[in-house]
Amino acid sequence: MGRPSRALLSREIIARAALAVVDEAGPDGLTMRALADRLGVKAASLYNHVAGKDELIDSLAELVNAEIDLAPLAGPEWRAGIAGYARGYRAVFRRHPNTIALLARRRVEADRQLLGYEALLAALGRAGLGPADAAEAAAALDYLVLGSALETFTAGFARPAEEYRPDYPSLADALTESAARGGGLDERGFELALGLLLDGLAARV
């Protein structure tokens, strides 16, 4: 018997194809038909591996969250560990920004998501935060990471800084001096916010 001309389908293969569709076409582009077309199969064959779109999105969530490195959270110094985790978490969703709208308001069911929150909350607990404070800190970190991955402050100001000066001189000054610092305003803004968050947590432990 000859070998199949294409790789057999699996839940992981389907999830990776779904992620590619979302990366390229956004969350509205993820349909079972679009996914089947990408894989070169009939849509009906997908249902042998996923029950429907909800289960497909759960698989996609598992795949994306598996890219987040949890190792920094196990380090001996809580501040450095949470900072390293936050940077890695943000980097994943900067690679896959279209998944944020798809996943942010869904229930947390993927094992890798749950493991991530468990590791973060355990690290916050070891730092000295009680469970309620740790929950607030985890929520704040989510807002910071996902918001900064989804939005770019810099791209909102497409004109040269001097063009804003006649009507918005403070904005022109801010953009000009920020550009002179180098390193990227979005990155510096994230690091500032992360540092302020960690300072706030340090005051609670």
TrEMBL record:
A GO biological-process term: response to antibiotic
GO molecular function, one term: transcription cis-regulatory region binding
Pfam family, one: TetR_N
Record key words, sorted: DNA-binding, Repressor, Transcription, Transcription regulation
Annotated InterPro entries: Homeodomain-like_sf, HTH-type_TetR-like_transc_reg, HTH_TetR, Repressor_TetR_C, Tet_transcr_reg_TetR, Tet_transcr_reg_TetR-rel_C_sf
HTH tetR-type domain: residues covered: 8-68
Start-end of DNA-binding region: 31-50
The keyword Metal-binding belongs to this UniProt entry's keyword annotation: no
Protein name: AcrR family transcriptional regulator
Organism: Kitasatospora gansuensis
Lineage: Bacteria, Bacillati, Actinomycetota, Actinomycetes, Kitasatosporales
